[in-house]
Amino acid sequence: MSKHLTLLWVLLTLSATLKAENWMSRLPDDAYVAVLSIPGAHDAATGSGWASGTEGLGDLFARTQDLTINELWNAGIRAFDLRPCVWETHMNLNHGIMPTVLHFEDVLYMLRDSLVANPSEFIVIHLLHETDGDQVENAYDERLTSLLQDDGLKDFFLDFSKSLTVGQARGKILILSRDRYATPPVTGGYFTNWTGEANWDLQRQCRIIGRKGSSSCYIQDYSDTHRTGGITTKVNAINRLLDYSTTHQTTNVSSIVWVMNFASAYSKVENLFGYEISSSDGYRDNATHTHATILEYLSTKPAGPTGIVLMDYAGVDRSNDYEVCGLQLTNAIIDNNFRYLDVGSGIMTTTSQPACSKQYYSLDGKRVSPSQQHGVSIVRHSDGSVTKCLTD
Questions:
Q1: CA–CA separation, 269 vs 93, rounded Å?
Q2: pLDDT tens digit string along 246-278?
Q3: From CA 78, how far away is CA 69, in angstroms rounded?
């Protein structure tokens, strides 16, 4: 390779990395977090390796990522599925009974440092107590409560709010927990009515509850695709939630709905002591189907929010001879934001027609008075909603 081609390759690689590291800097401050498209990593800790003596089993049965936490961050991942359990000296991050090398406390500090270096960004954590990995019983609530009040971390945590905006979230971590560890939550919020069923009525019953209110949260977390028809069921469930999230009109605070759409699942199992157990290749094989589904959707359908998409093998396109397309999907979800958000004016356009307002913007995002603007203009209404209007 010539020196010029080598330099070009380095510059292109560096440009892509910088774009991913700070992609949220291009989001408008007043956009609701609920209407974003955010790429996330399912069982995010598994790409960092396994506790001593468990490496072989971990790689065979429990790996869902190839990248470390820092590498996922650098690839643009901003939602992390973390599953802590309680050991004698620390809280470990596990996938089921399989222990990774990561301590939950260390990962929180790692993510905090990423935000300090990149204050335009924010992080969403899907938190689930991995009870199968506990070595100390009945200690999770107390340990987690204490950790979330740690002096080095507490100022970086964010209370859940239905109408949380990008500007309010920048530089912060929003923790959304599947388990109630304290009343009310120390920070973030709790999921209620979670379901792993591919049942649309059940998926719409989930809510997020925090100290500052609650919100509907539509979820899709169908995770076992290894039986006959499982992949079809999963793909249909993903598409159904995308059909909703990309077309739902968020015209005011009352119409906000949070969305979490899991691409992750396992389509192959291994037998261990007479039991069928999900396999790492099963997560890879499933990813080849679900990632292709979402990529096709984003490339062929009108643009709209995906919500938080938690995927396996995020940030890599090939894993163990499987074409998982995790880097393509991560980039496509990031880029999707800028297909429907009005970045120039920092506002979201809708098709609703509320009462008139005096705040007019030209289509290039500049503030104008009604007398200056003729034809099509963007109007911000008193209830916070935005619409495109015809003016005389």
A1: 22
A2: 999 999 999 999 999 999 999 999 987 888 999
A3: 10
